[in-house]
Specification:
The chain is of the alpha/beta class and about 375 residues long. The chain is built from eleven helices and 15 strands. The chain folds into two domains: about 120 residues, Aspartate Aminotransferase, domain 1, CATH 3.90.1150.10; about 240 residues, 3-Layer(aba) Sandwich (Aspartate Aminotransferase, domain 2), CATH 3.40.640.10. Helix 6 links the parallel strand 5 and strand 6. The two termini are about 30 Å apart.
Length: about 375
Amino acid sequence: MQDFNYLPDNVIYLDSACQSLRPRPVIDSLNTYYTEHNSCGERVKYKWGKVTDAKVEATREKVLKYLKLKSRDYFVSFTLNTTYGLNLILSQIDVKKANVKHVVTSDIEHNSPFLASLSFAKSHHLPRTVLTRNEDGSVNIDDIPANSVVVLGCVSNLDGRRLANIKEVVKHIHNTGGIIIIDAAQALAHFASTLYKTEADAICFSAHKMYSASLGGIVCRRDLLPVLKTTFIGGGMVDDVNLDTFELSADNPDHAYTKFEAGLQAWGEIIALGTAIDWLSNLPKSAHQQLKSNSEELFNFLNNNPKFHLINHEANSTSTFFVEGIDSHLIGEALGDEGIMARTGYFCVHYYLDHLKHYPPLIRFSLGFHNRPDDIAKVIERLSRLA
């Protein structure tokens, strides 16, 4: 793809689940901020600041439009990453006000929701349930107790498994007095449709996994605000401060996003996210078809070779496996020496992969829109030779 023409021919990047490569328009957008209107947002009245403010506000609107959600119901705040967002929300839930009785997550979760839910349960002395995901990524809603804070990923960073019954899960949790927080880190680049019109209480994501600069985001339901207590506070969050009191800007519905935005924000990165959303939204069908074709070709190769033990149940942009009798880290190094960059290890899913399934360290290939058919052919040829 032309937007990734800076990639040398001998470089094959297969670690998009960690962070995606950035297309030229996103890089140009970030550079434009630094060279043409580098300024603080929401604090200044000069021309550069007005340009920054307009572009940042446009990005908030684009995030909601991308997810097909309404601004009357949701607001968008920006953070460091998904992990930060999950912890920030959980740390501010008033357990008594929200009548929280239980904490729930699932077995295939990334450490971000897994650890955050564990810490929340321990700090509030609440029981915690770890659900077993089905092969299609769904969970059994009858296993979710009433009045639970539930933290679930909607797309797995291991095998692309999706929370197939996400809307049913959200409805059940709300009908039983609970709160549902979604880890969408792996969803917004290639599986955004999974979240369309999903009425979760909060959706946390990472822009750097969706072809943008390093940034995190929270899409928060306005109805959640009454049970959140402000414990992390600083500049940009208040309208006035006296000796012993302050007025929160978030009390104004138009400034609800300040609830999670303490201090100066990454203005350039926020603007770059807006560009990335435009880029993703306008990709030609051929780009999606090419990613699908590449994913299927790699999946079929791994699935049909008896020496390769594939975790995936179906083809998608993320494939995780190990090779019988060969250390995955050695394979990763050997591939790296030939310009093929892939992750090895447990990918921050230690409980499920190591302690529940007892897998050896694994190899993960996570593809993106930058990958060419020749990349896949070369990977298959090298793997065949190594195995």
